[in-house]
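tool=predict chain=A
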Amino acid sequence: MKKKFVPILAAGALIVVIICFMLLGSIIEKYTPSKEHMNLSDYYNLSGEQDVALILDNQILDAKGKLLNGTVYLDYETVCSYLNDRFYWDHNENKLLYTTATDLISADADSTSYYVTKDSHSLDHPIVKADAQTAYIAIDFLKLYSDFSYEVLDSPNRVILTTAWGDYITAPAKQKTQLRQKGGIKSPILADIGKNTEVTVLETGDTWTKVSTAEGIIGYIKSKALGATSTKTLTSDYVAEEFTHIKKDFKINMAWHQITNADANTTIASVLQNTKGINVISPTWFYLNDNNGNIASLASSDYVNYCHQKGIEVWALVSNLENKDVDTTSVLTYTSKRENLINNLISAAIQYNFDGINVDFEALSSEVGDSYIQFIRELSLKCANNGIVLSVDDYVPSSFTAFYNRAEQATFADYVVVMAYDEHYAGSEEAGSVASIGFVKEGVANTLKEVPADQLILGMPFYARVWSETPVDDTTGADSTTQTSDNNNNDTDETDNAAADAQAADEAAGTSDSADSYQLFTLDSYATNMSEIQKLISTNAAEPVWSDIDGQYYVQYENNGITYKIWVEDAASLEEKLKVLQENQLAGGSFWKLGLELPSIWDTIIKYIN
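tool=predict ok
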């Protein structure tokens, strides 16, 4: 038995030893740092020799640059998203544009030359390369007009970009150590860090600290391997240009004058006779008339001369709504067509000697937003060169009109007008005010987030809507939605086109206020002038009731079984809006439209706009 027991004991001891060795090996494996070095091309996710990794402000971008014949190029979308959204790429005519305060810079695809207005300049490589998807812009050309620094490195190809200026935290390595992809000793090594090598500290942890090296490699170092932190400051050598504007030394008291035919120009004397304090008038003289940027004109020198004799400036309006056959998108997205449109407007301004241009482009789609803003930029340069005031009309801000980019408008245009009306319009599915005081206040407040107060003009209505609710026989199986039509013959509803467009966008976004409940009436409305509203109130012996919520009188009455509702625009409602103008120290006010107001309204206006 003893002889048999010895081998068993030896075997058991061997097993124990093996297990110990295995456990020890496991422990050693667990606590032994990995020596695996990660391939940096894989780290930056580079798939080809032309690919260039982009490290922006200590973050690795998904987007990649291109290395073409020794020059780094960045794609247009990356440029606009991260470096400078003022660059504009015309994919129709393969032309890159950049607008400064005084010049239009242009470069054709594959050309080594570029123009600063009419002066030619050149680089030793193409400024922009294009393919079917996008444009790629040379990084050294971008730097001429943008506030960033860059460093190009190879093995692998990468560019370190900096746009964030100010203080940042650094620390030296106390000893030789490794920079790993993640916080853990088993994570692959990205770089070996020498003693005293300085790194930028991004996130501090108890065990591992996230850092960035001067070579644009971002990873983790053991916290105990780092020395004391210090603060350093990054500064930019970029000198931002100053934009100037034509500013009037008086509060703007402007009114739009709707002109639908040449004969209407002869009414200017009688129209102005009933006003007080107007110092700017905006006749609706011009509109896009074809897809090449040509315009229809109703301008009159006699009209301008008469206004000038009365000390009134003329800011002629150009619209895109009158000719339904015109594709505004086509005009705005081609540089040659935009240029033609701008030249036509400037030529008319010089020919007729008017003082300003008022742009009223409505019902645009978000896809044309960048091109519309480029139009404003380019027009502003030629207006400034000729002493012409440029003002731009805008809806009240909303998510689906953000592409109008009011901040960029304000940078280039002299004035921005917020059209604080058409809260409810011909296509609305419920009755309501055209401009309640809450709507006006919110519109002004949100516009002021993008536009300085001394450039903002508040647009206000001289009209109201008469709403009618006609009972429907519920036995007829009528549709549960209300129906709205417009029976107006007073030419007050031009802005309803844009409002309907905004409503369509609202519904597409799922934010429409459509009633879910069954309506036992059809809803109709028409817009009319202040005088007609007062006649309706008197004729129907209606009793106006002041609404603090709406900042105006509300009227409701019945006639032949039909319920009528009116949110009245008059001196009282206008005064509430003028208080918003005064409280926010806005540049002035404008009114749609002349001829719809009661003459007495001007006494209220001049109390707030001197």
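The chain has a mean pLDDT of 91. The first strand starts at residue 51 and ends at 56.
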